[in-house]
Design a protein that fits this description.
The chain has one domain. The chain is of the alpha+beta class and 96 residues long. The relative contact order is 0.21. The protein contains four helices and two strands, in the order E-E-H-H-H-H. It has a two-stranded antiparallel sheet with strand order 1-2. The structure holds zinc ion (ZN).
Amino acid sequence: MSGYTITETYQQVSATARRYGRCPECGARVTRSRTITNTINPMNRRPDGQVKDYSEVRADVQAKADRWQPTGHDLLHEACAVALSPEDYESYREPL
Ligand SMILES: [Zn+2]
């Protein structure tokens, strides 16, 4: 035991995607968001082996956020999600 701990913290980069949709069951408006996070760290490298800098990591998380789409499942609003039978709930699992 060394008696101390070295904690390395890496700069976090995140982008939040927000999508508006309608509950496929009742048509209620729903908003869904997801935050994509990555860090600038020595393992996060470009194909040529160079460590990605802030703008590159930022572009990666933004691209991921831009591509994200909630599935039908995600858009079910809470009251409908609990009211549905397990089979009906599963039927909304497909992406819209
Ligand atoms: Zn609903």
